[in-house]
Amino acid sequence: MKRLRWQVAAAAAVGLALALEVLPWVLRWLRSGRRRLRREVLFFPSQVTCTEALLRARGEAPAGEQAALPDCCLCGLPHGESSLSRLMRALLAARVSLELCLFAFSSPQLGRAVRLLHQRGVRVRVVTDCDYMALNGSQIGLLRKAGIQVRHDQDLGYMHHKFAVVDRRVLITGSLNWTTQAIQNNRENVLIMEDDEYVRLFLEEFERIWEEFDPTKYTFFPQKKKSHSCAPLVSRAGGGSLSWYRTLGTSSRNQT
Amino acid sequence: MKRLRWQVAAAAAVGLALALEVLPWVLRWLRSGRRRLRREVLFFPSQVTCTEALLRARGEAPAGEQAALPDCCLCGLPHGESSLSRLMRALLAARVSLELCLFAFSSPQLGRAVRLLHQRGVRVRVVTDCDYMALNGSQIGLLRKAGIQVRHDQDLGYMHHKFAVVDRRVLITGSLNWTTQAIQNNRENVLIMEDDEYVRLFLEEFERIWEEFDPTKYTFFPQKKKSHSCAPLVSRAGGGSLSWYRTLGTSSRNQT
């Protein structure tokens, strides 16, 4: 009897050990539908490619899948992927909301993509710089005409951000102004990240600016601005500007 | 005898099970010195604060620790943290190398920080835009004078990046041009990330540009450039520009 008990105990112990080791694998197998978070960097200048297929009506390519770029289009441009097409795909993945915080916006392809999202019922909000929204070729007027909400600054400084947030889930940010000149000629970078913490912080920044640029506070003549970029070497004390910086919760690794 | 064998087997199985479960905890305990990866976003405009203490000689604040900003300084400026001071700290943490890829660089504080790193023996390399490096107030001349290697483009497009890589480990990138005007007046963002994959890709971009801007290929008169930012609505086919985009290996989470 005692021998039987020990046999049972031994078998149970072995079974327990195996179960404890196998359990994580089982859980991982059950969670095998998990999706990888998107992390990507796009470098420019971008090859000039045909992006017409990306601007077709929704339904031809399910969300998250790449629409085939046909060779039957006779435009004469290459039909492969490019940094511009990947940026457009990231935008056109929007299904619920799109926040744009852009210093300058004159790219017709990106403008069409944003208007298409608005037509599809995506809530689009745009913040831009008041000087650059008025330049020849700006897409801002077309966005307003389509009924998209656009707000702008009236500050001395520039609204120099170049970011977008898609569905409150994907952050698109970098050095790129959304202009054809920049896309096709400049050395630029654009990060595309599914990152809850960065998205949250950039959305907070967007909402701060959105509220501050309340149209009920607009005056007719914006204040004259300093020249862009390389200003004379003058340090100005005070100025009452707030600084905003956030340290995110971080992941860990072995110390090397 | 058989009973004893079963007793031993059972004990061994239990011990094995416990050991397998305890082992990961033991390893984690041994690795308890691991450091959290840095992830931060800085928003501008930055409050104007005194940054003199950050520019003292090395030794007063060990690497990774924050040097105290004294109130005994009589400059009249606030001595707290600001987005600029945090950016300077990220730079001044460099101990081995610093790659700068900057469209415009005129901030005297950031210029002093970079020259200080060079004096400390950090290998500093700078890539910049040929038009903006020549503007009044640019720090590029002071960097060259100090013996720092600086290369520039001669392209039609702008070298519009605004990134830095510290010790081949920390990426600093965003919308911010390193000018006093931008730091103190513009709405800008700067990401600071310890991220092996992003660092690797940005370093590859830097090395591509560094090699391409080989000084032995300089001509005396750079080609005239298009105006910055909002260009007329002209799409140019061809151009022979390469597109560079990279999708990073990603982390996982449960699908929601």
From TrEMBL, chains A, B:
Pfam families: PLDc_2 (PF13091). Homodimer. Interacts with MOV10L1. Interacts with MIGA1 and MIGA2; possibly facilitating homodimer formation. Interacts with GK2. One of its GO terms (molecular function) is cardiolipin hydrolase activity. It is found in: Mitochondrion outer membrane. Keywords: Differentiation, Endonuclease, Hydrolase, Lipid degradation, Lipid metabolism, Meiosis, Membrane, Metal-binding, Mitochondrion, Mitochondrion outer membrane, Nuclease, Spermatogenesis, Transmembrane, Transmembrane helix. This is Mitochondrial cardiolipin hydrolase. GO terms for cellular component: mitochondrial outer membrane. It is a single-pass membrane protein. The keyword Methyltransferase does not apply. SMART domains: PLDc. Belongs to the phospholipase D family. MitoPLD/Zucchini subfamily. One of its GO terms (biological process) is P granule organization. It catalyses: a cardiolipin + H2O = a 1,2-diacyl-sn-glycero-3-phospho-(1'-sn-glycerol) + a 1,2-diacyl-sn-glycero-3-phosphate + H(+). Its main location: mitochondrion. Residues 155-182 form the PLD phosphodiesterase domain. InterPro entries: PLD-like_dom (IPR025202), PLD_domain (IPR051406), PLipase_D/transphosphatidylase (IPR001736).
